[in-house]
């Protein structure tokens, strides 16, 4: 795959599963390191998982992934056209954003260096609801310039607020006479919150978007047997105590049924996305991975959902689920899903505040900074 082939619709290239690079960050993992990244990436590539999503914000993910991708064990077996690289610009830290044209360009060039690549397949504007929309529109203009220059192949936006993502997508279609290629939304096509399917997909499709990434299918680790992940930066998860308690109760119930909450949640998100995808409008799932064991568990869960005959390149070709097995699994998952929703009760469909009352969008600072 060369930069010149960017006229190919992204929906024809994007596989149903993507490796999330946040697992190599201080937010998610204690002491992320190059050995961790290399071992996970080698195993992921062996299993056919060859699309990676990261961000400059997920420090030091880009650096660690770049070291892994340039390692002889990877370079000797996989050429650059055998995997997709996606990253983001604009968000620097938890409370620092820079969407200025100068920084957007500098950030992309830095990502190219960090990831040891001459082009990026996708670049997103990161967490767009935290900054004024005019700044987002300007940043998208810079990214489109970098597409014409050959540094980037496709351009997208990411964030939590579906209404803002849809509004920006409509504005891009009008202002730049072309649609965004892709939108990434997190934790809203999950067992806990299905608003992406209910409120977002039609709006995105109407704005000409051809691909949607559903990231955080476990709601940033909420939907699993253990508590939410705590990295070097402490417990930053946005779930309130009531939701955490309900999720724990649901996970305990699922475990009593002999199943893993994480596996159930992942299968739900993948199955939901695949059921709503078409050849021209693709929904893909980004899986946050921190270890080989987690990677293998997630792939095993995905194989119970995805059928061999429906898979494009960059995914296993001979060990997916049969139709009969997939149907049986779906029926059992549907029973467990209904039970989980009953346990979640009023917390089903709950949205995390983003950016929240403590954030001033106009100044791109915590509201307290205005005092």
Automatic annotation (TrEMBL):
InterPro entries: AKR (IPR020471), NAD(P)_OxRdtase_dom_sf (IPR036812), NADP_OxRdtase_dom (IPR023210). The keyword Flavoprotein does not apply. Keywords: Oxidoreductase. This is D-arabinose 1-dehydrogenase. One of its GO terms (molecular function) is D-arabinose 1-dehydrogenase [NAD(P)+] activity. PANTHER family: GH17980P-RELATED. One of its GO terms (biological process) is dehydro-D-arabinono-1,4-lactone biosynthetic process. The keyword Oxidoreductase applies. Residues 16-304 form the NADP-dependent oxidoreductase domain. GO terms for cellular component: cytosol.
